[in-house]
Amino acid sequence: MPITQVPDLPHRSKWKGKTCVVMVKRFGQLWNKTTTEVCFYITSDRVDATILARAIRSHWGIEHSRPWVERCHI
Q1: Beta carbons of 19 and 43 less than 8 angstroms apart
Q2: Strand (E) positions, the chain?
Q3: Domain boundaries, the chain
């Protein structure tokens, strides 16, 4: 899992208390084509990357276990 330190954020005062930005790339197959989805998560927790990955996977496991899937893109 690659980890990159980001240079100082613009408008840092608006990000007070946020200590970590996580980028997750998901790969899948749809109609015989490879799909890629990139998601970003912002957290104030200072935890190991494996713990964050487990929390993200757990969240999506709950989402996909429902009989319908809601999608929201900003």
Answers
A1: yes
A2: 20-30, 33-43
A3: 18-65
